Amino acid sequence: MLKRILTLFAITLWVAPVFAIVQAQGTIQGEVTDAESGEVLPGATVQVPGLDLGTTVGADGSYTIADVAAGTHTVRFSFVGYTEYETEVTVADGEEVTVNAELEPDFLGMDELVVVGYGLRERRDVTGSVSSVSAEQIENTTVTTPEQLLQGRTAGVQVSSASGVPGGVVNVRVRGAASIEGGNQPLYVIDGVPMISGTTGGNIGQGTNALADLNPADIESIEVLKDASATAIYGSRGSNGVVLISTKQGQAQGYTEFSANYYRGITESTFEWPVTTGPQWSEIHREAFDNFSLLTEGEVIPNIETLLGYPEVPSPEDAPHYDYTDKAFRIGSVQELSLSARGGDESTRYYLSGTYYDTEGYIIENEYQRISGRLNLEHDANEYMRIGGNVGMTRTLNNRPPTDNLVAGTLTSSALMPPVNPIRAEDGTFNMANPWNIADNSIAVAELNNYVTNHWRVTSNMFAEARPTTDLTFRVSGGLDLLHVDDYRRYSELTGDGAPDGFGSQTNMETENWVVTTTANYVTTFDDVHRVNATLGTEFQRHERLNTVASATGFVSDLFPNVTSGAEASTTSSFVDDTFGMESYFGRLMYAFDDRYTFEGSARVDGSSRFGEDNRYGFFPAGAFSWRITEEDFFDVAAVDDLSLRVSYGITGNDQIGDFQSLGLFGSADYANIPGLAPSQLANPLLSWESATQFDLGMDLTMFSDRFYVSGDVYRKRTHDLLLPVQTPHTSGFSSVVQNVGEIVNQGVELTLETTNITGAFEWRTNFNVSYNENEVTELVDGEDISAGLQRAREGEPLGSWYLIRWEGVDPETGQPQWLDADGEITNNPTTDDRVIAGQVDPEWFGGIENTFDYRGFSLDVFFQYATGHHVYNASNEFLMNPLTWNLHEDIMDRWQEPGDETDVPRVTFADLDNANQSSTRFLEDGSYIRLREANLSYVLPAGFADALGVTNARVFVQGTNLVTWHHLSVGDPEGTTGAASGNLNRGQLFFTPPQQRTITGGINLTF
Fold first, then answer.
1. Would strands 836-840 and 801-804 be described as parallel, antiparallel, or unpaired?
2. What percent of the chain has pLDDT over 70?
3. Better-predicted residue by pLDDT, 42 or 845
4. Cα 15 to chain center, whole Å?
5. Of the segments 2-16, 476-490, 544-558, 718-732, which one has the largest average pLDDT value?
6. Per-residue pLDDT tens for 547-596?
7. What is the mean pLDDT of residues 463-487?
8. Could you write out the DSSP letters of every residue in 53-122?
9. Which of 242, 288, 449, 933 has a Cα at 20 to 30 A from 177?
10. pLDDT tens-place string over residues 50-80
11. What does each C-alpha distance from 644 to 116, 596, 625, 738 come to in angstroms?
12. Is residue 377 helix, strand or coil?
């Protein structure tokens, strides 16, 4: 065998040079420049499609492709933002052929294909309001979830991360909050399949984000459909907007392009916890006990803390300091490796990728891993038939920290623990005693307890497409989104949650969503001026979720983590908690005349099992018109490249209300220990979806040879037939039944501006967008408020308005707190009747600005995101300014101490005898902020260096995310919200919510 191998090796060494001699070869080289400025274009791609050859233009604008077989070949030049250029070249044996290319800018990209509902459309034919995130923007940034690609980059889309925990929930609002009881998140569609979105996991504060399973590295583009013309094709699911996500597909380029991308960096918190030290805490608590108003003959009772059952507070001089918050934070790490192969020929195209993402969050014991793979394949069986499929698989492992309103929350407990209480005992074990309050040792809880959420997910879409004529296409596709969530908790018996014998629970949730879609599409042009694009389709969808829950107590040791190791089962159940079906019929017709006038109409009929049998089907029409003024003979302005106006009107719906609400339901019950059934919900056969009518007027303008582009929209969206509980007579045995009543109006303005400020060797481009949205509740049941904690839905006010007593400050003579009553008079004893509308939860203005600077291979991208016109209720500060027995905000050191002190912090009294820390506008803080969301510095290596590495393109970069935030909060992050709340009457409140994560990474992108 060894002899045979050596013989083959020798033959190979002899034959290889012969082939090199026999195969005639040459070289193609040249330079790629901007046709207008003459400047070089580093990073442009040069391909020889007929051969397995290609390269990338270096920093000096030159390229070289060696080993080109003799003959005539097509050479293709492409670069983002420029029109693709092809030319033929003949190469002789041993010849070096020079082929220079001047690429024309295509800033507006009127021939660019834009994804719309159930199809593609040239941008010139888009009549609705659509915001896009391009492939270039996606390629040049590192994010962990698809929603983060939208934040600050898409006008009219407000995105906020509920916390800084990796894999955490992200809230998205398209043109404002439009529902009270129904959902407000947009519909997400990936490669034609509606996605399972929202919150998964739970019971420990912040949930997890179902969309975090989608690998951003696989995304080709994102389109956000905003107005009714764009979203009505999705009918009863379109009123909150639609986010269309397209993954990368293969390319008929004649060879396989491989990519390898890797980055690594650090993570840390964007904010520190500003709490008192041990000596400061002791000083405040001694003073608070002294001011406690239990008096005997005019004298303060000595050692009042001992009388109340607390240890004696040490003197500030002798007080130790144990920094729980410092121990709860850490410098974490993050890394990602992704590999992909992309290519194909005229008949078969493919994209294959695999990605490993791993991060240690800045909270101790927090880890998040994601392993994902994707295969997208298309094959032209013949000139009439095309088949294909997209399959994505993901597994995530999320070792989560408990957060927010939990005593066991890592950050919560670290802030509540008195800094004079030791973290560890003298023998090095954790000190689990806390004589001051109910908080556990946060460091011990993080290390001893386990909170793990695992996701397994498969998304797929298989299709077959027939084209009997060049104008007509039939397509049938079947999509599946399958999500399995394993939510595991294990509490040590040493912690408060697990005492005395330990506790374990496991929840398995399996969600299955499948959809079958058939469409017929007819596209034609006649007489060179009439273009028609018509679509007809049907769609059938089914969604089901199954939950299985098991828990137990009585564990002999923490070494036995499984729930089955518990001595006593406390909960075991299995049930279907979510199921619905939908059948739909839709159509759309677009007619364009002479590239000047475009008319479009669409309609959809949805039948949903969620609604009453008398109102199961709904009709959702829309119409739009656009006018390209620059195509008119009378328009002759040299500086204007393109000017168009758009107008649209339509009706969409919202079916995000949960299942079974139209049905009369029964549940198990017992009477005198005899099992039976009892009614649990009244039926409402008239129940239907919420409907939204929307008017949109838009304008798109391009000037100065595509160097200036502005797009603006004015809209008004009225959501009516809200799904709200209506009180019923008590004789019915029920307090309420869900009915269609109520109305909300959102109206606003959106502006997007893209400019090329400087061209040449140094280039500077700017993308800016700003959105204004005004929200008003215009009708409620009998005009009555809907209450939810500190927020209200009230007619004439924005949805989610804060409803609070107004804070007036501190009396400088007494140190007592002061408020305003309902009449605006100062009072020391306000009541609930003195509450007023004091602000709103959603920002009025939001947007982003991005500047990109390029110079000979170097690129610097700086992106800011901002929001203003709203308020955050800081319950964290409410707790930390109350001198009970937990730790305190350092601002409490500015408290009033003697007559004449001018301060906003009242005198400190144990048990808050002055009620200074009751809920009021004292803790309602301006939520405005500007964040340096991203800064990215990269360099494309010269072609010579890339060739030396054996690659066609090499890019190195360093990126910082969430680097700096300018804000007004006393503690916490302005984006956050307690418990990852996503409703419209429970958001915008902070209670020890983990702030956003700052990351600094460096990496390399290779193409070969």
1. antiparallel
2. 92
3. 845
4. 57
5. 476-490
6. 888 888 888 777 777 787 787 877 666 666 678 899 999 999 999 999 89
7. 92
8. EEEE--TTSEEEEEEEESEEEEEEEE-TTB--EEEEEEE-TT-EEE--EEEPB-SS-TT-EEEETTEEEE
9. 933
10. 776 778 787 778 888 888 888 888 888 887 6
11. 19, 9, 10, 44
12. strand
DSSP state of 147: G
Q: Of 305, 414, 426, 322, whose CA–CA distance to 365 is shortest? A: 414
Q: Which helix (H) or strand (E) holds 139?
A: helix 135-139
- pLDDT value at residue 573: 67
| pLDDT above 90 (res 648) | yes
CA 54 to chain centre: 36
Distance (Å, whole) CA 580 – CA 658: 9
Between vectors from CA 643 to CA 639 and to CA 648, what angle results, nearest 5°?
A: 165
For residue 332 the two structure tokens come to: 């974490």
Mean pLDDT of the region 600-612: 90
| Peptide bond between residue 500 and the one before it cis (omega within 30 degrees of 0) | yes
Tell me which residue has tokens 């003579």.
813
Beta-carbon contacts of residue 656 (< 8 Å; ≥ 6 apart)? 179, 182, 183, 184, 185, 237, 240
Give the pLDDT confidence score for residue 849 in this predicted structure. 96
- What does the alpha-carbon distance between residue 273 and residue 417 come to, in Å, rounded to a whole number? 13
pLDDT score recorded for residue 130: 87
Burial 652-685, CB ≥16 within 10 A → b, else e: bbbbbbebebbbeeeeeeeeeeeeeeeeebbebe
How many CB atoms neighbour CB 290 within 10 A?
12
Distance of alpha carbon 197 from alpha carbon 483, whole angstroms = 10
In the predicted structure, residue 718 carries a pLDDT above the cut 70: yes
Residue 868: closest CA among 843, 848, 891: 843
Which of these, 686, 852, 825, lies nearest to 767 by C-alpha position?
852
Q: Which two tokens stand for residue 327?
A: 């121990």
**Encoded tokens for 114:** 């834009």
Q: Which two tokens stand for residue 747?
A: 């109206």
847's tokens: 């947007």
* Six-digit token string for 885: 């027995």
Residue (of 277, 783, 165, 214) closest to 458 by Cα position = 214
What digits encode the pLDDT tens for the residues 886-910?
Answer: 899 999 999 999 999 999 999 998 8
Total residue length of the chain: 1008
What pLDDT score was predicted for residue 204? Answer: 64
The predicted pLDDT at position 202 comes to 58
Pair 340, 1008: CB distance under 8 Å:
no
Judged against a pLDDT cut of 70, whether residue 201 lies above it is answered with: no
Residue 987 DSSP class:
-
Q: Read out DSSP for 286-337?
A: HHHHHT---EETTEEPTTHHHHTT-PPPPPTTT-----HHHHHB--EEEEEE
**821 vs 302 pLDDT, higher one:** 821
Q: Which of 885, 848, 883, 886 is nearest to 868 (CA)?
A: 848
Reading the block at residue 217, the tokens are: 């590295």
pLDDT of residue 303: 66
Asked whether residue 870 carries a pLDDT value surpassing 60, the answer given is: yes
Residue 332 makes CB contacts below 8 A (sequence gap 6+) with 266, 267, 268, 359, 360, 361, 362, 366
| Sign of the dihedral through C-alpha 736, 737, 742, 746 | positive
Q: Give the distance, in angstroms, between the CA of residue 469 and the centroid of all CA atoms in the same chain.
A: 42
**pLDDT of residue 948 exceeding 70:** yes
Of 443, 458, 451, 444, nearest in space to 397 by CA: 451
Q: Which pLDDT belongs to residue 206?
A: 67
What does each C-alpha distance from 376 to 336, 345, 483 come to in angstroms? 21, 14, 20
> Rounded to a whole number, what is the distance in angstroms from the first to the last CA of the chain?
35
